[in-house]
Write a structure and sequence with these properties.
Layout: H1 7-30, H2 37-50, E1 54-55, E2 61-62, E3 65-66, E4 71-75, E5 78-80, E6 95-104, E7 107-116, H3 122-140, H4 148-161, E8 165-166, E9 172-174, E10 181-185, E11 202-205, E12 208-210, E13 216-218, E14 225-227, E15 233-235, E16 238-243, E17 246-249
Helix pairs in contact: 1-2, 3-4
Residues 110, 173, 204, 206, 237 line the site of cobalt (II) ion.
Amino acid sequence: MIMLKRPEEIEIMRVANRIVAEVLVAMKEAVRPGVTTGELDHIAEEMTRARGAVPAFKGYDVGGRVYPASLCASINDEVVHGIPSPSRVLQEGDIIGCDFGVCYKGFYGDAAVTIPVGAVDEKIQDLMRTTREALEAGIEAARPGQRIGDVSAAIQAVAESRDFAIVRDFVGHGIGRRLHEEPQVPNFGRADRGIRLREGMVLAIEPMLNVGGPEVEVKEDGWTAVTCDGSLSAHFEHSVAIVEQGPMVLSVL
Ligand code: MF3
Ligand code: CO
């Protein structure tokens, strides 16, 4: 069942997502060669609690597998769900996906950015730019009367126009009183298919693109998803409310 949100609930979700956005801006400022992902996780958690919110991912339980940190920090060939560690040191030329969520007054916020560490290759910049543009195209299609497939197809068109592979094993999702709600929001699909979008839906749209093949696998830690071919991957995400006027990005940076 898809839970529609009233305007006052969307306002609370806007506050939740503003906290997420503030943390992601702080991540952009903190990321540089020599910083550890453990330090980033600490900053994210402290900022969240100082704002009266709770980190959404810490303790997140998928059938007994419990996520141990506040931030997901995924470096280079890591696609999503990289676990921060005090021994993981950022190097010049890396890219790091920072994915963060909070719960505030009973509602969730969720967003992600991929950040370059110092100067990165042109190809990597193209990967990041294309992933961001794919997200923007998906957001643009998220309007009342459109269908989920329109969002998916818009993302896919941008990704494939630039020859990057779309990760299929993870998808976007509805968000609200739970971190993951219906509907699923795939990053590939056909226009004019799927459920009809309505005012009051809130979607976390989150394309993940790879330089090489689309296949991913989960490492022995039970969380970190990496590309099977070792190629680089980028991830951007926004939580977006569908209102009468069109898409309203709640997690504006
Ligand atoms: N943004 C991701 C998602 O929407 C992060 C989830 S990490 C987890 O699925 F630890 F909470 F699973
Ligand atoms: Co998400």
